[in-house]
Amino acid sequence: MVFELPALPYDRQALEPHISARTLDYHYGRHHRAHVARLNALVAGTEQADRSLEEIIATASGELFDQAAEVWNHTFFWHCLSPQGGGEPAGALAEAIAARFGSFEGFKEAFGAAAAAHFGSGWTWLVRTAEGDVELLGTRNADTPIAHGQTPLLAVDVWEHAYYLDYQNARPAYLEAIWALVNWAFVAQNFEA
């Protein structure tokens, strides 16, 4: 199996002014593409070559895990954003968020604080627990909830390359801008799956 860079679900300019086309050119066009290329180089001619991305993540370690997880994480992240995003979730997802965080505003504050305080590189996630509740999760570097049997609902990339061109070192400004892009339909679909 040869892994391919999946197409973005929108044009590179579509997330402006919150995320620039220039950032997507680097983040998607270079970083994500490089993870796909490196993953293909690592699996070529090995027993991993016929496995799915999820199977590799479940069984690999070291650089192979890192590359496979970063391909998966980035692909998931692009779908968490939408030019028609923003607003608030509805239905069962909204109820679960309110039950866990007291309100949507309480959730935004908790998520933003966790993502802003995340030291170094990694990801901040909203995940569904085995009990059907929601919780926040921070993962370091390439780590991903699917490696631990958790169901990711929403991901925000807090690696510096995700925001530096647009926001320099102001991660909180990037995190605030993300709320205008969150694809709540995709998040709800993950919650209900």
Can I get a quick summary?
By secondary structure, the chain is mainly α. It has eight helices and three strands, in the order αααααβββααα. It has a three-stranded antiparallel sheet with strand order 2-1-3.
Secondary-structure map with pairings?
Elements: H1 21-43, H2 53-59, H3 62-80, H4 91-101, H5 104-117, E1 122-128, E2 134-140, E3 151-157, H6 164-167, H7 171-178, H8 184-192
Antiparallel strand pairs: 1-2, 1-3
Write up what this structure looks like.
Helix 1 runs antiparallel to helix 3. The chain has eight helices and three strands. The chain has helices at 21-43, 53-59, 62-80, 91-101, 104-117, 164-167, 171-178, 184-192, and strands spanning 122-128, 134-140, 151-157. The chain is 49% helix and 11% strand. The protein has 193 residues and is mainly α. Strand 1 (122-128) and strand 2 (134-140) form a beta hairpin. A three-stranded antiparallel β-sheet has the order 2-1-3.
Number of helices: 8
Global structural class: mainly alpha
Instruction: Report mean pLDDT, rounded to a whole number.
Output: 96
CA radius of gyration: 16 Å
Which band does the percent of strand residues land in?
5-15%
The share of residues in helices is 40-55%
- Low-pLDDT runs of 5+ residues are none
State the major sheet. 3 strands, antiparallel
Widest sheet: strand ordering: 2-1-3
> Rough shape?
globular
The quaternary state of the protein chains shown equals: single chain
Structure summary, number of beta strands? 3
First-to-last CA distance: 27 Å
Protein name: Superoxide dismutase
Catalytic activity: 2 superoxide + 2 H(+) = H2O2 + O2
Domain Manganese/iron superoxide dismutase N-terminal: 3-82
Keywords: Metal-binding, Oxidoreductase
